[in-house]
């Protein structure tokens, strides 16, 4: 049996994470992903592994060979033993063909909490036969994709910055696990932000980009920190169906405001009590840090509490008396003002996948996006798993509000 003292953590390999939070991401040795799958989720070791995830946001196991979907589910359970047990998007992607997630996910028939994702034709894998996987390409979601000529030169985009969460009815998964079964090797590509910033980021082919929600909060100026601790986000019902006709900004961080969202009356049946209104900041259960966690494409309204009684409003303070921002364009601009600095190239970690890699990330502590484009003959097979949690994330406490307002 592995002892906690045998676990070793080393920094992530990276060519692009110049100003990453020093705590962000660790390679784990001394315990394998398969050994984590064997843990009793109520054991002290499982608790230790969870604390490592909450502290470092992303744990990488350099696994050799394939991990069975049932083991991946067991590992994912270690990170949330109280999860009821169903997939994080169950009520959304599988039933509604209009959902923007429908085309990206193929459910593993034997372990439905595991999704097979990737690219290319796969004759037989994990109970699926003759399936053609499609790596999400930004041209299916961005309003103004890069030209074919630029794509041929290796220019690409962040596809969609997001949290893995249904954001309607179900509670956001605590952790997502990603397992690279087969990774095609190819040249690095360049993410071009195309949002007026002139920014670019070199990324490995088909990499997964992550930013720390804790950093996203930490880098805000004081008056925006004061705003963030007072803010809650109301999400659209069935957000992935609602947004299906809308198109994204070129940096993948939110949608253009063109009134293309489906009218709420045209969505699959929904009820007000299942709509999610979540804090903008989610409190880390191990470190107490606040993570700026918003799915920018799914927001419907922004709700701001007033400054606490006795706190004097400064000139820079936004909404000192509180507000309900139901104008969608204004709500989006609000969230963008808060989130955009966090995707600056120096804060992005883009993982360069190798066959066998197994990553667990704190889905309530990071945002992530796929990047890149594969050619037709490149085959990529990944397994993804997350579980809807039992309870919603917790926001700032009274002490946080007093500290930042
Ligand atoms: Fe995701």
Automatic annotation (TrEMBL):
Keywords: Dioxygenase, Iron, Metal-binding, Oxidoreductase. Residues 17-385 form the TauD/TfdA-like domain. Residues 1-20 are annotated as: Disordered. Belongs to the TfdA dioxygenase family. Its cofactor is Fe(2+). It comes from Chytriomyces confervae. This is TauD/TfdA-like domain-containing protein. Gene3D superfamilies: Clavaminate synthase-like. GO terms for molecular function: dioxygenase activity; metal ion binding. InterPro entries: TauD-like_sf (IPR042098), TauD/TfdA-like (IPR003819), TfdA_dioxygenase (IPR051178).
